[in-house]
Design a protein that fits this description.
Blueprint: H1 3-6, H2 24-33, E1 37-42, H3 47-61, E2 69-75, H4 81-95, H5 102-108, E3 112-116, H6 120-134, E4 140-145, H7 152-161, E5 168-172, H8 180-193, E6 199-201, H9 209-219, E7 233-241, H10 250-253, H11 257-275, H12 284-297, E8 306-311, E9 329-334, E10 346-351, E11 360-365, E12 386-390, E13 396-404, E14 412-420, H13 433-442, H14 452-461, H15 463-467, E15 473-475, H16 484-489
Parallel strand pairs: 1-2, 1-4, 2-3, 4-5, 5-6, 7-10, 8-15
Antiparallel strand pairs: 7-11, 8-9, 9-10, 11-12, 12-13, 13-14
Helix pairs in contact: 3-4, 3-5, 3-13, 7-8, 8-14, 11-12, 12-14
Bound molecules: 6-O-phosphono-beta-D-glucopyranose (BG6).
């Protein structure tokens, strides 16, 4: 048993113990995976922590590529270390995006510690110092602010008062601010305490394996880039309907709504991967520069190009204002006014309690200018040719086209070429989006994070909508949103629900 494992049953909330760290295991990991890290998790008992962060940190703890880590959870709740461990285990088992095996849990549990925010900065410093000692010194700090934007400034002050800024990095959750003013002042406050290279503004959609595959697909091949523009592409859809409802997140969701929760964050970020010019290198500055150019070219989001919806029954949910105007659904038309995209509409849609949970990007190509095929052959009956990305953890790509139906005569059917990550036998290597991004932040890699300039541009383009939002239209839970979505996209049609299912590679 290594010294670290001796801690398993110990009362780690007691005085700091002198332990022979780093263990041989930790020492060899340190050599290959970098300095050890104390992760300070603010909002440790919140929804995101329960669903994604705790299991993600647990899983990372067990990987050889991860530095040696200790996790200090903190939130308003009063918990001991052991109570926090129980909370973490129960959360992971109940709602965790990744389940941990008993062995993984045994490795993770002793690294989990807790201090209530109510005990003040000094108690946090003490807890972090103890963790650093357990790691044998030389640790870096990674502060993960899984808190609403309003709380973030107070957390930053706490970190300053606690003296936990040196050798630290800070992960800021989305939404970053609530509008242009609050985002700018949050950036200012952050910069009073942290240098820009210490700040990691997270958008977990960019950590999705399949979102990064858009970069590989576009820029590792010569095949698609020549047709990736207004001459060949008719329109683009980024469609992320969710079956999920509020899930006890009313306190967060009520003042936020679908636009701030999903569009100004995830959907626009993914749109930038689709729309940007080829970056000069796979490195943070080059990627951010190209993404920020897309955001600068984005036309202001006009209320008349937006459908806001609210599912019936939302106002009766616990914690929701009975007269709430918060949108649980949004669909909009965006335009990028540059040489590549002028005149190509981008349709974005997302919402809660919709018919299906999907995350797709669909690129519709222009139809053939003239058809030699006779009426009744089937050409054009199933829409244009499409390139479709599925942003699920096991990503998929499909290219659909018209081809000849076998047999006499000339009938045409819509066919497709499909690829699924599941075909590669490497699905076990896929890191869940938060795991990937936490790991990147531990390594100081900003490539998949957003920037102050990009975020501020997006808030700035959002002003017309935020100042003058159209009224929310009701929609039935289990539907695809209010009826107005069809007018918004006409003369095109939403790709979802799919007429043809993805090929099941496991069948
Ligand atoms: C989060 C939003 O950022 O993303 C949630 O706050 C949403 O409302 C979630 O459900 C969707 O992410 P994923 O990775 O589950 O598609």
């Amino acid at each position: 048993m290594t010294p670290r494992e001796d801690l398993t049953g110990a009362d780690a909330s007691g005085p700091a113990q002198t332990i022979a760290y780093p263990s041989p295991e930790a020492q060899s990991r340190r050599n290959s995976a970098g300095d050890p890290v104390v992760v300070v998790l603010f909002g440790a008992t919140g929804d995101l922590s329960r669903r994604k962060l705790l299991c993600g940190l647990g899983y990372l703890t067990c990987l050889d590529i991860t530095p040696d880590i200790e996790v200090i959870g903190t939130s308003l709740d009063d918990l001991t270390d052991d109570e926090f461990r129980t909370f973490a285990r129960e959360s992971i088992d109940a709602v965790g995006a990744r389940k941990l095996t008993d062995e993984q849990w045994e490795r993770f549990a002793p690294r989990l510690h807790y201090v209530s925010t109510s005990q003040g900065p000094a108690a946090l410093t003490k807890k972090v110092t103890e963790a650093e000692e357990r790691l044998g010194g030389g640790a870096r700090l990674l502060h993960y602010l899984s808190v609403p934007p309003k709380i973030a400034p107070a957390v930053i002050s706490t970190l300053r008062e606690a003296g936990l800024v040196d050798r630290s990095r800070v992960v800021m959750e989305k939404p970053f601010g609530e509008d242009l003013q609050t985002a700018m002042s949050l950036n200012r406050e952050l910069h009073e305490t942290f240098a820009e290279d210490q700040i990691f503004r997270i958008d977990h959609f960019l950590g999705k394996e399949s979102a990064q595959n858009i970069l590989a697909f576009r820029f590792a091949n010569g095949l698609f880039e020549p047709i990736w523009n207004r001459n060949f592409i008719d329109h683009i859809q980024i469609d992320v309907p969710e079956e999920l409802g509020l899930d006890a997140r009313a306190a967060f969701y009520e003042p936020t709504g679908a636009y701030k929760d999903m569009v100004v964050t995830h959907l626009f970020q993914v749109m930038a991967f689709v729309a940007m010019e080829p970056p000069t290198a796979l490195e943070p500055r080059a990627i951010s520069e190209e993404k920020n150019k897309v955001f600068r070219s984005l036309e202001p989001v006009l209320p008349e190009h937006v459908v806001r919806g609210q599912y019936t029954g939302y106002r009766g949910e616990e914690g929701v204002d009975p007269e709430s105007d918060t949108e649980t659904f949004i669909a909009l038309r965006a335009h990028i006014d540059n040489w590549r995209w002028a005149g190509v509409p981008f349709y974005l849609r997302t919402g809660k309690r919709l018919a299906e949970g999907q995350r797709i990007i669909s690129i519709a190509f222009k139809e053939a200018p003239k058809s030699m095929f006779p009426t009744g052959s089937g050409i054009g009956t199933e829409g244009p040719d499409h390139l479709t990305f599925d942003l699920a953890d096991e990503g998929r790509v499909s290219l659909s086209f018209y081809g000849k139906r076998p047999g006499p005569g000339m009938k045409l059917d819509k066919l497709s070429m499909q690829f699924s990550t599941a075909e590669t036998n490497r699905t076990r290597d896929v890191l869940e989006a938060y795991e990937r991004l936490i790991w990147d932040a531990m390594n100081g890699d900003h490539t998949l994070f957003t920037t102050a300039e990009g975020i501020e541009s997006l808030w700035e383009r959002s002003i017309p909508l935020l100042e003058n939002p159209p009224s929310v239209k009701p929609y039935a839970p289990g539907s695809w949103g209010p009826n107005q979505i069809h007018q918004l996209i006409a003369p095109h049609a939403w790709r979802l629900p799919f007429e043809r299912r993805w090929r099941d590679v496991r069948a």
